[in-house]
């Protein structure tokens, strides 16, 4: 049964970033791939995202942000996950990323960090790769 | 690399499309038969004459080049002020003022939801002290300012700040030049801005316009925005149709307030320069033609000014890629060229590093130099509307007019543009457009160089890596912490005896249906923040003080409401 379980992904936007196209594109693409995907919508808090992820029992949180704040957002979401004892949920990040940001994110254990225009198969392979 | 015969493919890189970016099917060739239904006088006309398809002015760019503008989005007032000075020294006089994303959403930096986006996308311009610092030493009566913010509260509040700063310095506010986007459809359709519900958006949009028409005649207080809906998935037809629908609705609403189109004067649209070269040019030509006809035929405009549409441009941020960012230079250059050939009035080009981070100063200067090369080396702007009379461009302009008219008729049949927003129909249209493009990209029917095609032609070298590395960095946690402390100190040091009655006047004006703009200016002078401005207006409508429902109404606001 467990092997039949679909991969569950929470796409999340934290803070006041208005850019939504990346999140919406990912939402439909991952659904087309047969994954179960929930999108939080914009203007969310780190605690709200962590709670949603834990209560929806997702495997991955995909953070989307185009303000250059992904390391700051990821750090606060990871801290909230820890409070809930949900550190097993993987976190990945997409949006505006400098090389420095990617290094900072990887240090926190956030992998699969994708800039704009990343081919969808790269993102999908990353998510599937987590469960191999 | 394998260069054996088997690897040579003469068809590699062949064309995959027969339609424009907006899916207008094209023939391989156009000739006189395709435009025989057009009349020079009514459909094109010389530049400077109705319907202005070929441009607003008889000699176009020979008399005045397009305004060169940039959205300035640095984190601090000091950096922004320095950038403004550098830009003015480099020939830019059109300053696009932004603020950080929390402020655009209508909250102050000390609000808990501000932290994760604070000082991103612009300065946290929470109150007049920040505006004074940001505009220090600038020629307020000579520069052109544009407000491109997301939330409708921004236009009411930041115009208020600009007027307040000018009045405090003794500069005549009649000299204020520029425009506000102030588009109540785009704010919800694209951004879902939390500051106000749509009915409040619609009212303060008109408050801002009405006050501006009567007090700052050189300010264009609305510029319906097609850029952001287009980036959200609308094609060129729906982008232009949406702008025309918003402008028409606002003109109707203004006539209810006793302002005629002739009193209002010229319209401004903020349009998107997309990658499809000729479609973008046709869109600009058509925009002028359609607004002129609507102004004259539907609103009875009598003056030439009132039939004229000025076009302000933002080039497509969405078209830029983080893969091989050097390619963005080619994209942006072609987009700028389409603007010049399309006869636009102001041009804000995206930067080649914009898909990686906030633009660096060097990348911005590259945009400016591209415009200088187009002007002074390529001699493009010497002749007005150089593509006028082209079989293809005239056919495309005319074909798009029919399509835009169909779209406008559909919006009308659905009860007008606000009903289309509230029913969710506009969102469905935008989503359908987005999914169509996404599907075509996945299927290889739209090729994006370096992304879903031509990826293997060489690894990224030092030039691309350097572009990737210079992008402006978002502010650190420490800088954000300092900002919160600064705001708290500012709030604690205001003279509340002076501020309170002014907040009360804003509350009353909101509640009693009087124009709110003057009350905003007066309270802004005494230190009212953006968060307080939004909160007081919301309370005036009997809704929660905080759009995010995270903080309590401050005690001084509670007292005002009680009295």
How would you portray this structure in words?
Chain A is of the alpha/beta class and about 130 residues long. Helices cover about 40% and strands about 15% of the residues of chain A. Chain A has helices at about 20-30, 45-55, 70-85, 100-105, 120-130; strands at about 10, 35-40, 60-65, 90-95. A 4-stranded parallel sheet of chain A has the order 2-1-3-4, sandwiched between helices. The longest helix of chain A is centred in the middle third of the chain and has 14 residues, at about 70-85. Chain A is globular. The relative contact order of chain A is 0.19. Chain B has about 575 residues and is of the alpha/beta class. In chain B, about 50% of the residues lie in helices and about 5% in strands. Chain B has helices at about 40-45, 75-90, 100-105, 130-135, 150-170, 185-190, 200-215, 225-230, 235-255, 260-265, 275-300, 305, 325-340, 360-375, 390-415, 415-420, 425-440, 460-470, 475-490, 495-510, 515-525, 530-540, 555-560; strands at about 65-70, 95, 145, 175-180, 220, 265-275, 310-315, 345-350. An 8-stranded parallel sheet of chain B has the order 5-4-3-2-1-8-7-6. Classes of the chains: A alpha/beta (about 130), B alpha/beta (about 575). The interface between A and B is large, with 34 and 51 residues.
Note the topology.
The complex is a heterodimer of chains A (132) and B (563).
Chain A: E1 8-12, H1 21-32, E2 36-39, H2 46-55, E3 60-65, H3 70-83, E4 90-95, H4 99-107, H5 120-130
Parallel strand pairs in A: 1-2, 1-3, 3-4
Helix pairs in contact in A: 2-3, 3-4
Chain B: H1 40-44, E1 67-72, H2 77-89, E2 94-97, H3 101-104, H4 128-134, E3 144-147, H5 152-169, E4 177-180, H6 184-189, H7 198-215, E5 219-220, H8 227-232, H9 236-256, H10 261-264, E6 267-273, H11 277-298, H12 304-307, E7 309-315, H13 327-341, E8 346-348, H14 361-377, H15 391-413, H16 417-422, H17 425-442, H18 462-470, H19 477-492, H20 496-512, H21 517-525, H22 530-540, H23 555-562
Parallel strand pairs in B: 1-2, 1-8, 2-3, 3-4, 4-5, 6-7, 7-8
């Amino acid at each position: 049964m467990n092997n039949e379980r679909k991969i569950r992904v929470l796409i999340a936007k934290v803070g006041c970033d208005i850019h939504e196209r990346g999140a919406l594109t990912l939402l439909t693409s991952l659904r087309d791939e047969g994954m179960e995907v929930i999108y939080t919508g914009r203007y969310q808090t780190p605690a709200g995202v962590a709670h949603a992820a834990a209560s929806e029992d997702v495997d991955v949180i995909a953070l989307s942000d185009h303000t250059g704040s992904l390391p700051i957002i990821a750090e606060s979401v990871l801290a909230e996950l820890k409070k809930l004892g949900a550190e097993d949920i993987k976190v990945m990040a997409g949006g505006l990323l400098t090389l420095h940001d990617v290094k900072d994110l990887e240090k926190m254990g956030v992998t699969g960090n994708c800039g704009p225009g990343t081919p969808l198969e790269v993102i999908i392979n990353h998510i599937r790769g987590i469960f191999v | 690399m394998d260069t054996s015969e088997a690897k040579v493919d003469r068809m590699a890189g062949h064309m995959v499309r027969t339609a424009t970016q907006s899916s207008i099917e094209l023939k391989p060739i156009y000739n006189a038969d395709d435009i025989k239904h057009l009349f020079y006088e009514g459909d094109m006309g010389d530049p400077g004459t109705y319907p202005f398809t070929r441009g607003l002015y008889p000699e176009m760019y020979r008399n005045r080049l397009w305004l060169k503008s940039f959205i300035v989005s640095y984190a601090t007032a000091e950096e922004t002020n320095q950038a403004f000075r550098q830009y003015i020294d480099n020939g830019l006089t059109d300053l696009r003022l932004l603020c950080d994303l929390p402020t655009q959403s209508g909250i102050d930096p000390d609000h808990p939801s501000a932290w994760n986006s604070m000082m991103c996308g612009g300065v946290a311009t929470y109150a007049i002290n920040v505006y004074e610092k940001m505009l220090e030493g600038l020629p307020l009566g000579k520069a052109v300012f544009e407000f491109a913010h997301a939330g409708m509260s921004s236009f009411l509040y930041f115009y208020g700040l600009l007027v307040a700063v000018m009045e405090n310095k003794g500069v005549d506010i009649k000299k204020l030049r520029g425009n506000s986007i102030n588009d109540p459809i785009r704010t919800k359709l694209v951004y879902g801005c939390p500051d106000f519900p749509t009915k409040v958006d619609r009212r303060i949009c008109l408050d801002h316009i009405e006050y501006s028409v009567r007090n700052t005649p050189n300010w264009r207080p609305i510029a319906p925005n097609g850029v952001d809906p287009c980036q959200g998935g609308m094609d060129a037809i729906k982008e232009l149709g949406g702008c025309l629908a918003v402008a028409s609705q606002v003109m109707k609403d203004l006539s209810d307030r006793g302002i005629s189109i002739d009193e209002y004067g010229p319209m401004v649209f903020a349009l998107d320069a997309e990658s499809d070269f000729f479609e973008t040019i046709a869109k600009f030509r058509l925009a002028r033609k359609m607004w002129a006809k609507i102004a004259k035929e539907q609103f009875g405009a009598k003056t030439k000014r009132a039939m004229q549409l000025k076009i302000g441009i933002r080039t497509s941020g969405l078209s830029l890629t983080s893969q091989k960012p050097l390619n963005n230079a080619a994209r942006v250059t072609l987009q700028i060229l389409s603007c010049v050939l399309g006869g636009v009035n102001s041009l804000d080009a995206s930067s080649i590093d914009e898909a990686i981070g906030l633009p660096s100063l060097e990348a911005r200067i590259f945009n400016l130099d591209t415009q200088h090369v187009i002007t002074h080396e390529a001699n493009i702007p010497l002749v007005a509307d150089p593509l006028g009379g082209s079989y293809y461009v005239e056919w495309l302009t005319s074909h798009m007019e029919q399509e835009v008219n169909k779209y406008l008729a559909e919006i009308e049949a659905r009860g007008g543009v606000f009903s289309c927003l509230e029913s969710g129909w506009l969102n469905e249209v935008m989503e359908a457009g987005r999914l169509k493009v996404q599907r075509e990209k996945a299927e290889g029917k739209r090729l994006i160089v370096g992304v879903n095609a031509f990826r293997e032609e060489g690894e990224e070298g030092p030039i691309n890596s350097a572009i990737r590395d210079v992008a402006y960095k978002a502010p650190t946690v420490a800088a954000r912490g300092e900002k919160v402390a600064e705001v708290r100190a500012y709030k604690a040091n205001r003279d509340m005896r002076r501020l309170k009655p002014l907040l009360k006047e804003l509350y009353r004006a909101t509640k009693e249906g009087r124009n709110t703009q003057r009350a905003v200016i007066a309270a802004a002078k005494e230190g009212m923040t953006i968060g307080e401005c939004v909160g007081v207006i919301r309370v005036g409508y009997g809704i929660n003080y905080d759009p995010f429902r995270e903080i309590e109404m401050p005690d001084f606001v509670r007292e005002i409401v009680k009295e």
